[in-house]
User: Which sequence fits this backbone?
């Protein structure tokens, strides 16, 4: 039984096709999808630190959760949780400027 799914949103892994497939497979049992945005670093699966400004982090996260949100809603689902992946998570933990610009817009999209 799948009750939730952390879904890569196209940065470190995933694509529109894999996001849709994952959402559809999880639909019968889930209580919501969990967005897992990451750095645009497929070679290192989003685990290598890359230089990133706060504005770039904001745009990266919103672009990725926006893509998953559109897919989830088209399938009758919705995002209920956002957790950055790998190096993006670690960069935000070390640098508050990277962590602060996007949580509120994420929350607004989830609630909307």
Assistant:
């Amino acid at each position: 039984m799948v009750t939730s799914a952390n879904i890569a949103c196209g940065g470190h892994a995933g694509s529109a096709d894999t996001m849709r497939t994952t959402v559809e497979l999880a639909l019968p049992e889930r209580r919501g999808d969990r967005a897992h945005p990451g750095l645009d670093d497929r070679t290192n699966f989003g685990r290598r630190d890359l230089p990133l400004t706060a504005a770039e982090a904001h745009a990266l996260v919103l672009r990725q959760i926006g893509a998953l949100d559109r897919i989830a809603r088209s399938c009758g689902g919705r995002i209920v949780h956002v957790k950055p992946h790998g190096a993006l998570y670690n960069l935000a933990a070390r640098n508050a400027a990277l962590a602060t610009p996007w949580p509120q817009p994420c929350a607004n999209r989830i609630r909307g």
